[in-house]
């Protein structure tokens, strides 16, 4: 199929591996939305698409965003498929490049630790900017009292 040692092959694998978990997270979040909101929109004359876009999607946005961030973090840290499918160093993902700093007889600690710092920065920034959505998603079903 010509997917070996290409980024397209890696994207194909990542897409297929992420669908199931993201589907389950988003489905479970949509299951927490009361059916009465959908019924009320129908009574008011909204179509299926209007109900989804104007009512369901804004309510489920924290769950969808949480699934996207969790999938991104999983793929950012993924090593196995990146080192198995891609051989060319210019096409490797960041975790696969980390393995290049260590050989059987030596380890380049300066390069390894510098790369680790660079690798850690995007997930930390992502969490700082997206923590609001995580808190909304986790406390969305909380009941006071």
Descriptors for this entry?
single chain, 145 residues
Gist of the model:
The chain is an all-alpha fold and 145 residues long. The protein is 72% helix and 0% strand.
Shape: elongated
* Structural class estimated from helices and strands: mainly alpha
According to DSSP, the number of beta strands is 0
Low-confidence stretches: none
Helix percentage range = over 70%
Element layout with pairings:
Blueprint: H1 7-31, H2 35-43, H3 48-76, H4 80-85, H5 94-98, H6 109-138
Helix pairs in contact: 1-3, 2-3, 3-6
Can you describe what's shown?
The model has no long low-confidence stretch (mean pLDDT 86). The protein has 6 helices and no strands. It is an all-alpha fold and 145 residues long. Helix 1 crosses helix 3 (48-76), helix 2 runs antiparallel to helix 3 (48-76) and helix 3 runs antiparallel to helix 6 (109-138).
């Amino acid at each position: 199929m010509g997917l070996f040692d290409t980024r397209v092959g890696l994207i194909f694998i990542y897409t297929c591996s992420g669908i199931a978990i993201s589907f389950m997270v988003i489905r479970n979040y949509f299951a927490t939305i009361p059916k009465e909101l959908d019924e009320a929109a129908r009574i008011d004359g909204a179509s299926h698409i209007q109900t989804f876009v104007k009512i369901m999607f804004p309510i489920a946005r924290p769950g969808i965003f949480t699934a996207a961030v969790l999938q991104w973090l999983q793929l950012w840290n993924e090593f196995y498929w990146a080192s198995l499918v891609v051989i060319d160093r210019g096409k490797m993902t960041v975790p696969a490049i980390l393995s290049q700093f260590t050989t059987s007889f030596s380890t380049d600690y300066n390069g390894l630790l510098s790369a680790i710092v660079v690798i850690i920065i995007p997930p930390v920034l992502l969490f700082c900017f997206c923590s609001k959505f995580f808190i909304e998603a986790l406390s969305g079903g909380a009941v006071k009292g």
